[in-house]
Every structure is written in C-alpha cells, then in structure tokens.
From TrEMBL:
It is a lipid-anchor. The chain holds residues 1 to 185 of 262 of the full protein. Signal peptide: none annotated. One of its GO terms (molecular function) is GTP binding. Its main location: membrane. This is Ras-related protein RABA4c-like. Belongs to the small GTPase superfamily. Rab family. It is found in: Endomembrane system. Keywords: GTP-binding, Lipoprotein, Membrane, Nucleotide-binding, Prenylation. One of its GO terms (cellular component) is endomembrane system.
Length: 185
C-alpha cells in the first residue's frame, strides 16, 4: 500500500527516462528549461555539460521522477547515440510550427527512435513556438493527422510564453504511468 513520503529524494516510486528529439533549433532546450526550472533563455546556461534534468511530480499519490534528456546539440552532427535512447520510456518529438521542414523530418525521427528503443515507446508530438502564430507554416490539422496515423499524442506549445509546456510533459508522464500500471507485476 502506498504511504506518504515527506522527502521526495528518499521515496521515489518510479523513475521515467524521457528523451527530447527533433531538429536543431526547434526549442528542445528551452522547453526543458521551462518545464524543469521555469526559465527561458536564461543566462545561467545551467544546461551546458548536463545531459539530463530531473523533475519530480506526484501522480496518484506516487512519487514519479522524470529524468529528461536533451540532445545538447548532438543532432546537428547526426550523432544522437544509441546510449541516448537506451532505457527511454517516452519521448517528446519536437518541431517548429514556423518551419515546415522540421515537421517533414518528424517521421524520420520517429523511425530512429523506434529503431533504438522499445518500439512501443510513448511519444508526444510537440509543435513548438505557437506564440509565433503569424509565421505559422504547419497547420494544426496536418500535425493532428500525422499524430493519429502514427499513434502519437499531440500538443502545440510555446517555451517562450509557457503555453502547454506543463501539459505536454505531464500528459506524457501520466500516459506512461497509466501504461505501466496496466502491466502485470
Ligand atoms: P534546440 O536546438 O531544439 O534545443 O532549440 P533551442 O531550445 O536552443 O531554441 C532555438 C531557438 O528558438 C532559440 O533562439 C530560442 O530562444 C528559440 N525558441 C525556443 N522556443 C521558443 C518558443 O516557444 N517561441 C519562440 N518565439 N522562440 C523559441
């Protein structure tokens, strides 16, 4: 039976590894900074040299620690390694709603993800920079159609003004939680 843990560091019930993928410049690092530290374009550059950030959330009275990995620019050199994907149970696949080519590459990212991780990995497709609506190049319907066809969750976000950042991360985490609870012990 679950019991209350007063010290989150001492009592983690679940640890979920999540990876951020998508083209360079779509806003992966800023989404993570916004979710993990509520920062945007921080001068502290706290992410340099750090491979992942953690965020602890309560779900259904369970302490869930998300370990969220950022590519730290590796994708620029097409060098996202197998180790990056290893053990990942969920992914945020990010494109930029103002750059259609970043959306065109989504299925390639998905293929790579499914090749290197559990093929049932849960994926949240994220159309970022929705604050730049006047520059929109990817219609919402086009993204929804892809998400439905590929079995992905979908949300548009803005790391700049915080729109949907928590719902995107927490939505993915809760779907993972639900899927894990369904598995036999
Ligand atoms: P990454 O290469 O995918 O990690 O992308 P970054 O997080 O480094 O962001 C690339 C650029 O996009 C930076 O100049 C950010 O300030 C900008 N950016 C990131 N997210 C947003 C957003 O939601 N809205 C706007 N307008 N700019 C963003």
């Amino acid at each position: 039976m679950a019991h209350w843990q007063s010290d989150l560091d001492q009592g983690i019930d679940y640890m979920f590894k999540i990876v951020l993928i998508g083209d360079s410049g779509v806003g992966k690092s800023q989404l993570l900074a916004r979710f993990a530290r509520n920062e945007f374009n921080s001068k502290s550059k706290a992410t340099i040299g750090v491979e992942f950030q953690t965020k602890t959330v309560l779900m259904d009275h369970k302490v869930v620690r998300a370990q969220i990995w950022d590519t730290a620019g590796q994708e620029r050199y097409q060098a996202v390694t197998t180790a990056y994907y290893r053990g990942a149970i969920g992914a945020l696949l990010v494109y930029d709603i103002t750059k259609h080519d970043t959306f065109d590459h989504v299925e390639r990212w998905l293929e790579e993800l499914r090749m290197h991780s559990d093929k049932n990995i849960l994926v949240m497709l994220v159309g970022n920079k929705c604050d730049l609506g006047s520059l929109r190049a990817v219609p919402v319907e086009e993204a929804k159609e892809l998400a439905q066809r590929q079995g992905l969750f979908f949300m548009e976000t803005s790391a700049l003004d915080s729109t949907n950042v928590e719902p995107a991360f927490l939505g993915l985490l809760s779907q993972i939680y639900v899927s894990i609870r369904k598995e036999p012990l």
